[in-house]
Amino acid sequence: MPRLPMTIPSDLGAIAADLPPGVLDEEFRQACQRLDRYIGALAWEVAAALELGPGVQPAADALLPERNWSEAGSLALRWLLETLALYGLAEEEGSGWRLAEPRSPRTTSVETRAEAERITPAAAPAYEVLARCAAALPAVLRGEQRGEDALFGPATLGLWFDYFSNANPLYAPNNVIAGAAVARAARAGCRVLEVGGGGGSAAQAALAALVQAGATPSAYVFTELQPAFLRRGTRAVQQALPPAAELRSLRLDINLDPGSQGLAPGSIDVVFGVNTLHLAQDPIAALANLRALLSPGGALVLGELLRPGPTAPVHLELPFTLLEEYRRAPLIAGVRERPGFMSVGGWTRALERAGFRAVEVSPAQVERCAAIYPGFYCGALTARA
């Protein structure tokens, strides 16, 4: 199995030639490689802080009762052990894990972060989020703190706006890939609905792609559940929306019937969301509800971080493993076989069971990209009603 960190092959962009130009440019590849090195150093330091020394350690579900740790940290602990293995710092042994002996000298996460932020200051939010998570994990395991309290609050709201921003080169490709898929699926004068719009960065990317493609929408419905994000996102859409287009903004819970939340069946031509639908309690039901909103032949576009396999680890996943909504997402055989992010196969089956057809993935060879470089997760799925 490929290990991280590694040099991202220079021809990865050629394999993913259907992506917008520049998404996998040299600057992005270098930024990813620096982040990869940081996460490896951080995982090793977290293991040391938790006194997970070299040699055999039990699996996560056995470590929790052995150390009297809280179930709230179970998914993050599983992430830690699997990420150490992804970096060649641990390997499965029997029902547990064998951690490697310390290597010396080892570059610290602080040193790695400082160098990365010196080269690419706009990537700083990604490092800050991961550092906060690593610092919070021991307290979460001891039951002294909730992940939600560590990561979300008045003091961190601005951090998340910066993290999900198109100025952050480590997150922007999620929006760019989804935006390009929206533009391919749309036509001029279409009615667009965005679900889970957050701070509006996905809307900005999608609207830019729509205008460039000559598919300027006649109406844009921006939705988000959290009030602070809804306000911020609405302002971002107002600034990016062409003057003639109508804007509507409302709160929307993807786990409830959209018809009961002010959206009429058949009233939308394109529905899209970026890194939102994987949080649905029942993704198949949520997708079916969105399908009911679409006009005949309308399209759904999902910009999602895609697991390389149904239960494969994702080394960027630490922040989300600390959140109860993510951790407790019900499993569905063949669709969501691990909490949170889903694989291409899982999404395809969910879309088909929800009644969608003609499912397309961008990049078309996303699974080959992930096999070559195990840190490649970005993608978009498009399906027709």
Tell me what you see in this structure.
By secondary structure, the protein is an alpha/beta fold. The chain has two domains: 152 residues, no CATH class; 213 residues, Rossmann fold, CATH 3.40.50. 43% of the residues lie in helices and 16% in strands. The strands form two sheets. Strands 4, 5, 6, 7, 8, 9, 10 and 11 form an eight-stranded mixed β-sheet that branches. Strands 1-3-2 form a three-stranded antiparallel β-sheet, with helices on one face. The model has no long low-confidence stretch (mean pLDDT 95).
SSE layout and pairing:
Blueprint: H1 12-15, H2 26-49, E1 55-57, H3 60-67, H4 74-86, E2 90-93, E3 96-99, H5 109-119, H6 124-141, H7 147-151, H8 157-163, H9 172-185, E4 191-194, H10 201-212, E5 219-223, H11 227-240, E6 246-250, E7 268-274, H12 283-293, E8 294-307, H13 318-321, H14 324-327, E9 342-343, H15 344-353, E10 357-362, H16 366-372, E11 378-384
Parallel strand pairs: 4-5, 4-7, 5-6, 7-8, 8-9
Antiparallel strand pairs: 1-3, 2-3, 8-11, 10-11
Helix pairs in contact: 2-4, 2-5, 2-6, 6-8, 9-10, 10-11
Main beta sheet strand tally, sense and closure: 8 strands, mixed
The CATH class of the largest domain is identified as Alpha Beta
Residue share in helix? 40-55%
Uncertain runs: none
